[in-house]
Amino acid sequence: MGLKIIVLAKQVPDTRNVGKDAMNADGTINRAALPAIFNPEDLNALELALRIKDNNPGTTVSILTMGPARASEVIREGMYRGADNGYLLTDRAFAGADTLATSYALATAIKKIGGYDLIIGGRQAIDGDTAQVGPQVAEKLGLGQITYTEEVLSLENGKITVRRHIDGGIEVVEGTLPLVLTVNGSAAPCRPRNAKLVQKFKYATSKSEENPAKEKYAEQLKGKDYLEITEWSVADVDGDTKQCGLSGSPTKVKKIENIIFQAKESKTITGSDADVENLIIELLNNHTIG
Amino acid sequence: MANFYLDTPALKHHLNHPLMKRIVELKERNYRDKDEYDYAPMDFEDAMDSYDRVLEIIGEICGEIIAPNAEGVDHEGPVCANGRVTYASGTKANLEAVTKAGLMGVAMPRRFGGLNFPNVPYMMAADMVSRSDAGFENLWGLQDCAETLYEFGNEDQRMRYITRVCQGETMSMDLTEPDAGSDLQSVMLKATYNEEDGCWYLNGVKRFITNGDADIHLVLARSEEGTKDGRGLSMFIYDKRNGGVNVRRIENKMGIKGSPTCELVFKNAKAELCGDRKLGLIKYVMALMNGARLGIAAQSVGLSQAAYNEALSYAKDRKQFGKAIIEFPAVYEILSLMKAKLDASRSLLYETTRFVDMYKALDDIAKERKLTPEERQEQKLYSKLADSFTPLAKGLGSEFANQNAYDCIQVHGGSGFMKDYTCERLYRDARITSIYEGTTQLQVVAAIRYVTTGAYLAKIKEYETLEVSEDLKGLQKQLVEMAEKYAKAVEYVSEAKDQNLLDICARKMVEMAGYIIMAHLLLQDATQSPELFKTSAFVFVRYVRGEVEKNSSFISDFKVEDLANYVK
């Protein structure tokens, strides 16, 4: 039997290739200098969802994202890989959200979508690195959650067994649907975009996105509903503006500092087993490795 | 994120050639698929946009998956056990990626699950895949065999087999035997028709079969008992699901080690006839080989690109005598020539591919309806051009790939001789390109008739009339003078009326024609996109001038009696 899966995805600045102009003088991110990409661990989440779809005919995978109109790109990228459709939450009132306001917005949208079996997101986004949104969404929906998911081992009769990647090892846990999963970067990488799907969905847009090509082909594209990305405002999801965006965000950024790591002292380590072991313990303890 | 399409703007330049409009119109039959398939283009711009997007996906898969896997695949290689082949782990990952991305059956019609792309974007994909891992290009590129199945199989066979290729099953073409290499007329693998079940059965041995444990094989076999030449050969389809073919061993090769080259034993292997009896070699394999040669031309260009990139990046990095070695004239001269040869062979590759696209699309239309007299004219013209350009693109392109791989190691110096750098793999991988699907010497045999009939010269004269930008006019004028020298050499050899003299001078003349053609193409490219091709145009024309001088000097006083000095 098919499942209904919602994948939470975020468009983020590509902080993995930071150049010298990545930060503005005031300490905020210079978004113009960093290309907007599909948050890497959300791609792992999408792959996990698509594999469930591969194994369970009739399953649908929807992408849910919050952001400006251009964040629809994340939804299209998902469709190019096998997602069925997408929802874009976009509204001025959503802007400036911290994790609490974000999870509130996402949770209201998920309620509106309804009928879900699994909500799957990446462990964390590379711009904020909080890893809070997934768990908060679960709390707001009153659902159980499994974090650090690496692989689904079995899924039947409303029960899911997954392997979690945790500090120092793995853990196999079982959960009951509906459920929220957050997926670790060590999970399977996402499949490539598919040539046919790219051609099929390239004109998919949300209503506030401008796309001259779509206007040009308006006549031919008429009736192709799969090219409509659902776009919702705060009102559309019956949201409370006080809990959205800046006004719903208790987190206030006081100051951002550029930190440059500097080696202050050098240490000599011999090739002896004891020295090497001590070094490994030290690096594990200060989380340089592991 | 490495992307081999986005980092090589020359590809997009060639994709946007004016002839594409006609090619796409023909290939898409005026966009009639658009109502039936949700991924079919609505018009020319839409189709071009799709090619661009799909090439970008392939570029990403090449840069992020296939290229990083290449070294591991080269070391690990495939293994053979119990008659079956297991690919290297990296090869499996590559195949999974290209299959998931829907890149099998790129040129096949949509009704079989293909993308219905023209050969131009398809060869661009081959160009990039080869740059990433030339050995993997063999496995992926064997989807070409589906083209032969499409051209000569019946609709039932197409539906049963091409659909499977589009879903990711691999193919092989089983031609060579221990005693039938360049001379395929000697093929002995026996095909016997069994009256009882109305099936064909194959018995014998094939050797040097690329991807010999493929799911679907095209097999050349002797169906006519008592015959000895090519007229007794037919083409068969063998489906691995039926069994009867085992892999006896995998060759231990110098290069393209990820691609299993197999010795196959056919023991009563059930097969079905593809097309008509007796046309196996003379019609079908000839068509198959032409397609495969174009593929090797693309593989050569991809390797040339890889060699150039490796050499360039090393030369920028490596410091000697207090500066990067790229700053020394002796080094940057090598690099510029590598780049010029790369650009020239790529221009020839896509010019040839456009010719192939034109005639193939018209051939295919001719299956549905009678062509108009104008279309028939067009078909004839491009078919002849494709036939005359394919051996140049394959023959000269593969020689350039080898030269570039050699120079790539030279730029690396001693380090290049070590196994630590990519260049040594490129050197080994490139070596086969001037051998398989017909050695360079056989490409010359295929090309020489266009030298003697004046076909190349006529095409060169046509290129001479094309407009080039002001600063390239001097080069164009030089090329006119070179063509005169070429014509003189051809005239000299033709007048001697001696087959051996012609044969011994053939390669020199084919080279002259090919180089001059490439140079003209580069002038056109440099006129369109000077930022990409102008320096290469200058470097290449100077190179060709030297080569034309050298070759015409070789020929100029070659007398029939001099042949005695060469006979062994």
Key features?
heterodimer, A: 290 residues, alpha/beta, Rossmann fold, 10-stranded mixed sheet, two-stranded antiparallel ribbon, 12 strands, 24% strand, B: 568 residues, alpha+beta, Butyryl-CoA Dehydrogenase, subunit A, domain 3, Butyryl-CoA Dehydrogenase, subunit A, domain 2, Four Helix Bundle (Hemerythrin (Met), subunit A), 3 domains, 7-stranded mixed sheet, 18 helices, 11 strands, globular
Question: Could you give a short description of this structure?
Answer:
The complex is a heterodimer of chains A (290) and B (568). By secondary structure, chain A is of the alpha/beta class.
What order do the helices and strands come in, and which of them pair?
The complex is a heterodimer of chains A (290) and B (568).
Chain A: E1 4-8, E2 11-13, E3 36-38, H1 40-55, E4 60-66, H2 72-81, E5 85-89, H3 99-113, E6 118-122, H4 133-141, E7 144-156, E8 159-166, E9 169-176, E10 179-183, H5 195-201, E11 205-206, H6 212-216, H7 218-221, E12 228-232, H8 273-285
Parallel strand pairs in A: 1-4, 1-6, 4-5, 5-12, 6-10, 7-10, 11-12
Antiparallel strand pairs in A: 2-3, 7-8, 8-9
Helix pairs in contact in A: 2-5, 3-4
Chain B: H1 9-15, H2 20-27, H3 44-76, E1 79-81, E2 84-86, H4 89-100, H5 119-132, H6 134-141, H7 144-152, H8 155-166, E3 171-174, E4 190-194, E5 199-210, E6 216-222, E7 233-239, E8 245-250, E9 261-274, H9 280-317, E10 319-320, E11 323-324, H10 329-368, H11 373-412, H12 414-417, H13 422-431, H14 440-452, H15 455-464, H16 473-496, H17 499-528, H18 530-556
Parallel strand pairs in B: 3-6
Antiparallel strand pairs in B: 1-2, 4-5, 5-9, 6-7, 7-9, 8-9, 10-11
Helix pairs in contact in B: 2-10, 3-4, 3-5, 5-6, 5-9, 5-10, 7-9, 9-10, 9-11, 9-13, 10-11, 10-17, 10-18, 11-13, 11-14, 11-17, 14-17, 15-16, 15-17, 16-17, 16-18, 17-18
